[in-house]
Design brief:
- The two termini are 19 Å apart.
- The chain has 135 residues and is α/β, with parallel strands linked by helices.
- The strands form two sheets. Strands 5-4-3-7-6 form a five-stranded mixed β-sheet. The protein has a two-stranded parallel ribbon with strand order 1-2.
- The protein is built from three helices and seven strands.
- The chain is globular, with a radius of gyration of 14 Å.
- Helices cover 21% and strands 28% of the residues.
- The chain has a single domain, classed as Roll (Chitinase A, domain 3).
């Protein structure tokens, strides 16, 4: 394993997350800003951001989902590829999903090969697996 590749063993516990330290305050502010319209999702996102390991921008592993990453993931039997962005850059028609959406929040900080169980707005839980990440 090379030093810039994060790899974590599968576990039934929440997976380890890595977040760019420079983005940390902005991500918290975005999540806080979403609290009035989407309180449950905002709380989930804040919890994930706060439990993440912070990493200097120049040392972020290339296989970890961050703002601007193109990520291919499996959601059940379906494979999708999206770019995770800040809310003002979101455009689902162009494959750009906000970090303040259930999928965007679930993917943030995960490395290729990791899985997370995420509660969706309708109460269902989805198992999401990151297949690959491109910066």
């Amino acid at each position: 394993m090379n030093a810039k590749t994060a790899h974590f063993p599968p576990s039934s516990a929440k997976p380890k997350l890595v977040i760019d330290a420079d983005l940390y305050p902005r991500l918290l502010a975005v999540a806080e800003g979403a609290r009035k319209q989407m309180p449950e999702l905002a709380d989930q996102l804040i919890e994930e951001i706060e439990r993440a390991q912070l990493c200097a921008a120049g040392e972020m592993p290339p296989n970890v989902v961050t703002i601007g990453s193109e990520v291919t993931f499996r959601d059940g039997e379906r494979m999708s590829t999206l770019r995770v962005v800040l809310p003002h850059e979101a455009d689902i028609d162009r494959g750009r999903v906000s970090v303040v959406t259930p999928i965007g929040a679930a993917l943030l900080g995960l490395a290729a090969g990791q899985k997370i169980t995420w509660q969706m707005p309708d109460g269902r839980e989805k198992l999401i697996e990151v297949v690959s990440v491109r910066q």
